[in-house]
Design brief:
rod-shaped, mainly alpha
Length: 29
């Protein structure tokens, strides 16, 4: 669990990237 908590910046980057990708797909589509 501690390892998961220490890797939170990775999850932030992943969620931000996924949100941006979704927005691009919606805008293009």
């Amino acid at each position: 669990m501690k390892n998961l908590l220490t890797s939170w910046p990775l999850w932030v980057l992943l969620s931000a990237g996924f949100a941006a990708l979704t927005a691009i797909i919606v805008k293009v589509g």
